[in-house]
Design a protein that fits this description.
Layout lengths: L5 E4 L2 E4 L3 E4 L5 H17 L10 H4 L4 E8 L2 E12 L2 E9 L8 H15 L4 E7 L5 H9 L3 E2 L12 E7 L1
Parallel strand pairs: 6-7
Antiparallel strand pairs: 1-2, 3-4, 4-5, 5-6, 7-9, 8-9
Amino acid sequence: MTAALCYQNTASLHFLPAQIRIGGLDERQVIKLLKEHIIDMYATSPEECVHTLNINALQSETIKFWSAWRGDEAVGCVAIKYLSPYHCEIKSMRTSNQARGTGVGRQLLEHVIKYAKLNGVKRLSLETGTMDFFAPARKLYSQNGFEPCGPFGDYEVDPHSCFMTLIL
């Protein structure tokens, strides 16, 4: 039996798994999704605590970016930034407002974990917010084995940041 993922589109329910594709930074819908992500980050976090990457930064050679699609609708995205050959940071994890709670985030996270394992990464880390807005994300990460950790990379201790890591 295939796990069904549900989302609403023009008042009808569809059960489709998201198709995860490498790239998408040149797609209008993905650009819109990333802009919404940045707006949400500034709306929920103090400006000095926003660590999101813009589209230009996501095109770095040290970053791999994926977009998730259901049919012709972009429903999510995620990136990993190589901090070293063996340590990556999850960046720009986002599910569209219409697809929240339908498993897209879990599917993207599982994809990134699998990619990292297959490519010799030994540790995945992330920074997310401590506010209620980020509670579903923290729960998802915890359910997938991520544990709290201290700051990594260029981060510093911040009461608005929750740092998590997964040893692969």
